[in-house]
Amino acid sequence: MRSGFYNPPTMLLRLTAIVLFISANCANAQTGGTSVFRFLDLTASARQSALGGNVVSVRDNDINAAFNNPAILNPEMDQQITFNYNPYFAGIKHGYTAFAKNYSGVGTAAIGLQFVSYGTFTRTDETAADLGTFSGGDYALSFSLARPIGLDSMLFAGASVKAIYSQIDHYTSFGLAVDLGISYQSLNRLTTAGLVIRNGGMQLKTYYNGNRERLPIEIEAGISQKLSKAPFRFTITARHLEKWDLSYTDPETQNETDPLTGEVKPAAKVTFGNKLLRHFIISNEVLISKNFHLRMAYNFQRRNEMKVDSKPGMVGISFGLGLRVSKFHLSYSRSIYHLAGGTNSLSISTYLGDFKRAK
User: Fold this and answer.
1) In whole angstroms, what separates CA 17 from the centre of its chain?
2) In terms of residue numbers, what domain contains 244?
3) CATH of the domain at 48
């Protein structure tokens, strides 16, 4: 048995203490509408989109997985580079690129850039007179490092530091965020797990003179299980562990009056089970071969928040595939957000070292 797991070093205990401290201090945080730099919550890659958006436990050679949990960085990602394009709604363009390098005795490091372009807007005054145009965008430059906790360990720790810049017209804002993560892998590599605190930090400069806004801090955990004799890997991810009730009740629907009978109808209460399920994403990868994977997921919170009750359709469901062609790994995903439509994502990754060896 590996002593690194059964006798966790001081570093693991300190990281666990940090997790518990931050959990206690953000217990009443909101999930929307009360924080800045919400673009940090966007899904970076096609694989992550196909798996529901927030997988923190799958540990393999995909550098994009480290966007959600820096502890997943490992030597198998050495010299891997990735490019991701995720066109969003209303013409918004979102992308992410990253590069990883392994340093013997230090760990695996990565640098990444996330960007969002909101396009060009028409500027008008109170009389609707055309005053020209303006644009907006968000950027986050990240530096990550991960390494085993102790020698010959099944536990790994990682951290990312993100410098954030946001611009809307002539208004700008700066911020600094940190991600802290832990990753576990069993001896047979069939079971993996992860725990991460994302976006802990502060807004250094506000858009306009005023109070600083909080960042969208979130605590996530997950576990993945690959079957030993079947090509399936199942994953359960739990989001927003810092907040129990993720439900929202529209105040306009409170105590509605029946127009025929005049009877006041109390608003339907959100059940315990519904509140619990909103934290979970269930996903599966079908590992048909080394070069071809199918992916699918069900996001409970997305379905509850975005579906139309009279016609829920496939809201909350996402799916995609991964295909290796020569030296390149391609991924595609489709995520259904609403009856009106969904989003498509495309990723391409390769190892720069493969081209050097080919010469």
Assistant:
1) 23
2) 3-123+131-358
3) 2.40.160.40
